[in-house]
Amino acid sequence: MPLILYTKTGCPWCQEVLELFAEKNIKFEEREVTGNQNYYDELIVKSGQDKTPTLDIDGKILADTDVEEVKKVLNL
Question: pLDDT tens-digit profile of 18-33?
């Protein structure tokens, strides 16, 4: 199951999700949207908004989420 995590520099909620993924050894691709117009545009197309963290779980979008919601969705 491919995981893509859209993040922004300085986002504390993003940092919490990144720490969770590191703690649980979850493989994912981070797409930092700050300063990367392509990733930013992709975030908006996929989620309809520009807030992070946003998670793409094999095409299922979890927009503007937090670590507790990520835990629920991934059954952690």
Answer: 999 999 999 999 999 9
Distance CA 12, CA 43 (A): 18
Task: Compute how many other C-beta atoms are within 10 angstroms of the C-beta atom of residue 16.
Answer: 15
- What pTM was estimated for this model as a whole? 0.93
Q: Are 15 and 52 in contact (CB under 8 A)?
A: no
Per-position b or e across 49-66, b if 16+ CB within 10 A of its CB:
eeebbbbbbeeebbbebe
Within-domain flag for 71: no
Question: Beta strands 29-32 and 54-57: pairing type?
Answer: unpaired
How many structural domains comprise the chain? 1
Judge residue 23's burial from the number of C-beta atoms within 10 Å of its C-beta, 0-12 exposed, 13-18 middle, 19 or more buried.
Answer: exposed
